């Protein structure tokens, strides 16, 4: 397996292919907008929706980087959690989930087109590894929030 194939595999295992941990897509399966907006008492954590916004933002930025596109939507880290408005509307939540799926597909497609020698330039390998760790970290948070609210399926081990 070459470096690009390995990176694509890592993107898959953190997004939708189960490996040692539950992937992102599994972590949000079956959620309603109300569940995605839920905060535990005290509200010291981000909602699932906010976490998904945050992941979308950084992937969209990386896709632009890979495609040599100009990134104009510069947000600070805290602003990324509010990328889309959280409203109690399942259609809006589904649109956010679809955006997360779309940017994942765009990222894999952009990576597939990058010449191997270009991966070493501009720290692209490092950025791609970081995005997979970032996804895994926030997926863990999403699962923890679901466990706190009682919406994580009891048959799941993670």
Features:
single chain; 158 residues; mainly alpha
Q: What is the gist of this entry?
A:
The chain has 158 residues and is mainly alpha-helical.
How would you summarize the topology of this molecule?
Layout lengths: L2 H13 L8 H5 L4 H5 L10 H19 L10 H4 L9 H24 L10 H26 L9
Helix pairs in contact: 1-6, 1-7, 4-6, 4-7
Describe the structure.
The protein has 158 residues and is an all-alpha fold. The chain is 61% helix and 0% strand. It has 7 helices and no strands. It has helices at residues 3-15, 24-28, 33-37, 48-66, 77-80, 90-113, 124-149. Helix 4 (48-66) packs parallel to helix 6 and helix 4 (48-66) packs antiparallel against helix 7 (124-149). The protein is globular and about 50 Å long. The chain starts with a helix and ends in a 9-residue tail after the last helix.
Indicate the low-confidence ranges by residue numbers: none
SSE-based structural type: mainly alpha
Radius of gyration: 16 Å
Assembly annotation:
single chain
């Amino acid at each position: 397996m070459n470096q690009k194939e390995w990176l694509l595999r890592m993107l898959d295992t953190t997004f939708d292919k189960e490996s040692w941990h539950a992937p992102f897509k599994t972590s949000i399966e079956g959620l309603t907008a109300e569940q995605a907006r839920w905060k535990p008492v005290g509200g010291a954590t981000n909602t699932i929706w906010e976490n998904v916004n945050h992941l979308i933002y950084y992937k969209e930025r990386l896709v632009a980087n890979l495609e040599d596109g100009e990134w104009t939507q510069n947000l600070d880290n805290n602003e990324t959690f509010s990328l889309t408005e959280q409203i109690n509307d399942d259609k809006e939540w589904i649109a956010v989930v679809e955006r997360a799926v779309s940017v994942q597909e765009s990222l894999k497609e952009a990576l597939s087109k990058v010449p191997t020698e270009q991966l070493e330039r501009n720290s692209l390998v490092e950025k791609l590894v970081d995005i997979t760790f970032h996804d895994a970290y926030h997926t863990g948070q999403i699962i923890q929030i679901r466990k706190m609210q009682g919406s994580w399926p009891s048959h799941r081990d993670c």
